[in-house]
Please model this.
Amino acid sequence: MSTPSEKYALFRSDQEHPAVKEFRGLYDFELDEFQLRACAALEDGHQVLVAAPTGSGKTLVGEFAVHLALQRGQKCFYTTPIKALSNQKYADLVSRYGHDKVGLLTGDNSINSEAPIVVMTTEVLRNMLYAGSHTLLGLSYVVMDEVHYLADRSRGAVWEEVIIHLPDSVAVVSLSATVSNAEEFGDWLETVRGNTVVVLEEKRPVPLFQHVMVGKRLHDLFAGETPTAGAAQAQFGPSAGRPSKSGNPAKAAAQKAGQSTAPDLRDLVNPQLVRIARDDNRIFRDDSRKPRRRRDLPKTRPGKSHFTPYRSDVVEELDAGALLPAIYFIFSRKGCEDAMLQCLRSGLRLTKPGERDEIKRVLAERTVDLPDEDLGVLGYHDFAEALSRGIAAHHAGMLAAFKEVVEELFARGLIKVVFATETLALGINMPARTVVLEKLSKWNGEAHVDITPGEYTQLTGRAGRRGIDVEGHAVVLWQPGFDPRAVAGLASTRTYPLRSSFSPSYNMAVNLVRQVGRSRARDMLELSFAQFQSDQAVVGLARQVQRNTEALEGYKESIDCHLGDFLEYADLRRRIGERESSGSKRRKLDRRVEAQESIEKLRIGDIIRIPAGRSAGWALVLDPGMRSEREGPRPTVLTLDRQVRKLSMVDFPTPVESIGSLRVPKKFNARNPQQRRELAQLLRNRTDMHGEDGPPSSRSRSGDVITHADDPVLQEMRAELRAHPCHGCADREDHARWAERYFRLDRENREVQRKIEQRTNTIARQFDRVCQVLDALHYLDGDKTTEAGDRLSRIYTELDLVAAECLRQGVFDDLDVPQLAACLAALVYESRSKDEPTSPRLPRGEVRDALEKMGAIWRDLSALERDMRVDFLRSMDLGFCWAAFRWASGASLSEVLYESDLAAGDFVRWVKQLIDLTEQVADAAGPTPLRATARAVTEEIRRGVISYASVVDDV
Model:
């Protein structure tokens, strides 16, 4: 703020927004303009959507909502998509406001839940809304961090449920990564929540420079100065706060941005990289064409380019170039662990003695509660050695305590490089100077797919620490087939829209009907972002229908005939043409069927005359051929010119019949020229008497066809056509051409109208079908839930209906603690790969009986879903049953991990999800022995590493 006008504007803003002024004083740096606009809108009583790049400081707006709530004596909930973020934000707010004013609610922790500020995962808030929790009393603000998670296929619906069901008195602060349709999302928020101000920020706080590492050399991706530092503004223009027609302040700026033009950054790619790519591809292509003897085979991995650097070399080069700390993204958990071990074996050391001492102190302090007997199986010693050298891995398969240590040490600058999967980019506050991407493709559970521009931006958004680095760096490693222009496209693309993944579930349906009744619940679901987006698409389709309708009216004027109704005449002509065409197709099909049946009657040695094709003429059947559903029979024949041919239905437009037969020797060899010559001569001797045209019976057959003259309906229609007044019009053919255009456009218009009908009320129709399933199973009774429905309302899992049916049918009633743990594990676990064993190890006896009953229930429900045209219930996965059984039976961690082949972090995560379900089952079971058993399961499996109270949990 240097100019007098800027100082005066700030003075006026401070006068109008005293809370913002007070909040600014809490920080030792100036707030950005977009942060000030968002905070001012919040103080003015508006709801706010902030869409800004990673690391730009959008969470500061959420912290202002916390500040406002405390200042006004109100309550604020701060929600995040993952427990790790909740715990991290809880620690941040406690450090500022103290333990007495901040609470935490996750699946594992409940700390000071009645505090004025409560941090929680979004699912916890959704469950509180459905349960009508008293904790909601006095709630004035809800911060929804990482709200773009609503696009997540498995969990996204939770965000929309919360936004729709929160009381109108609650102001929602939505914080999103940069998306290209933020104004559309803001329009929806305004429709559902009321007056909402959209604040868009495209500018990165730290300029980002893009590089490609070829061998051990770092090349700039773009020629000259990097254009990506200002690429966003070049493409989108500056965000503004003027109101738009829709009421969103940034709408006009966003619309203007969409019209702005920018150079294609792919044309600015470093020409040296283009030359390297051309040379590398030529070498790789030429090398692959060379014939190889065994001793000539390459000793390196297949597909490994000599331009692809080793991981340890990459780290050394970054260290030499003062580009550390770095996050090195590898889209594989095993790859992250291997990279850490490779750096250890290479002798790489990035820390100083004082840093090593501090790392060891923090590690000992944060892992003191871990059982000593489990440290070996957890890989603690390699992990500790790597940390002391400033190297670490970070992925979802790690123990939460280990991830916590890595995050803390990296944030403090003690860890210099972290090999991580993409889960690290999902909101955890771990900025770096440099981000490295080993590959630009990843395994999505089904196939290797290229990363999207949105994913690229999310990953590279970690580069550049605000207030520390002058610039950030993104490094992509050279790989075989590397295309620098494609990378430039990823780096410059800013079109990644937010798409809703919302659909009503069984649990959602019973909870809504229970609270507001079926009709009101249906209306509420119509407010979803999914329906909003569908309706927006319908608007465009409706405009198309309107344009088509206007064009049809114009066509009618051109078709107008003074002699009569020409559309009626043209329609009659069209129907005649269609009947003639269908008759021709029908006759052609009849002939094909007749021909196929005649071929199927052929036997070895039959003499036939092939009616068409290259082999037309006399032939001897050597093999009738096996029938193919797609191609029909394929007989093999010997022709008069001694050629052996395999025929198809194309060679038989008309039926064929045998005129006699010859004996084909059993040892006949079609590859022996002498044998072919002798058999062909015998064939010629037999057919000379028939001549070239074949027998009369064969010739007369082709003339026996049905013509249009044999169709009385067609003849009647033709007579009606000739009698029509318009038949004698001098401009008949000109009118007919306009009529053909009319009918063609009319067909297109009806198809568009059909699409509109399909897209209108789609969510409501899904809800109706879900309710039909629940009605059939007696979970719903009109606008009320039954006792079974009440149980279902307490179960929040993907297989909620299966769990509820098992409760109703008593499948779990007679199970002991380990047995119940094993059975419930089948309802939570989902293998990461389809390659995992399809017949996993299972406990014997009652567990198998119960699992068979559960499988029967699942099959019955799946059949009911097919009848009702819904598809919510995935298959049960038994891959975790044995591990859960052994852990609940008291087995050690090393035994369970050895027997199940699970990573420690995965095991802990699945056990914690199992704990969530057992608590839900205990709640739903009511005052029965099953409740006691379920609670005993929770007590038995919450031990050892599971009971470790970490401030970081699974991602």
